[in-house]
Amino acid sequence: MFSDVGVLELATLVVLALVLYGPDKLPEAIRTVSAVIRKFREFSEDAKRDVRDGLGPEFEDFEFEDLHPRTFVRKHLLDDDGAGLEGIRDALDPRPELKGALDAVRDAAGAEGVRDSPAGPGEGPVSPRKGEGAPPAGRPPVDPDAT
User: What number is the average pLDDT over the span 86-107?
Assistant: First the structure.
């Protein structure tokens, strides 16, 4: 219930309780709070039991914790082994499609008589070949790395 409460926070709560209730009333306050927590847990378990009974025998193994989105995905999609996660990541990875599109643009640019820069293939701006002059009017030079 209080899994994220550290030692410093717990010590602060104890000192605050001592100041508010005093050492003579503190045990009675602790008993009252623990009784309220116990009643709340009983009420919660009774409600869970009523819901399970209402769902019928096919939902005997139903756990309310399974309704949390992470638990639901881990249990039903990943089969608790985590191996399906890599498949999902690979299926959603856009890099292969983008690489194919980039290759197609480079092939199309090469077919139009455009060469790579002196820095090497696929690097730097692309310029027309010598002797071809400027690109036709109204058409900008092709830069396949920019796409």
Answer: 86
Smallest CA-to-CA distance from 127 within 115, 118, 144 is with 115
Q: Residue 77 in contact with residue 107, Cβ under 8 Å?
A: no
The position carrying tokens 């009784």 is: 35
pTM summary value: 0.40
Report the C-alpha gap between 21 and 28 in whole angstroms.
9
Sequence-distant (≥ 6) Cβ neighbours of residue 60 within 8 angstroms: 52
pLDDT tens for 9-50 read 989 988 998 898 888 898 898 899 999 999 999 999 998 888
Separation CA 34–CA 9 (nearest Å): 19
DSSP H helices in the chain: 7-55, 69-76, 83-92, 95-111
CA end-to-end span of the chain, whole Å?
52
Task: Tell me the β-bridge partners of 115.
Answer: 127
